[in-house]
Amino acid sequence: MDVEDWWGQRPLRTWAARRLYDYSHLPRVKDARVRPWLPVGTEAGRGPDNEPLVRDVEPLGWVDQ
Name one Pfam family in it (predicted). Predict the structure, then answer.
């Protein structure tokens, strides 16, 4: 959920809402039991879509509807 530098001075609330919305489709598309979650860990690199690759991952919390 870290804010990227390019976001600038726009509201943090909007950043968080956009990031959470990105994953709101999971229960509908995958399975009703699927819930997005917020992990904590150490970034080890970047994947092919520039997503963070994380090790030593633990859940910080689950995202509710």
Answer: DUF6098
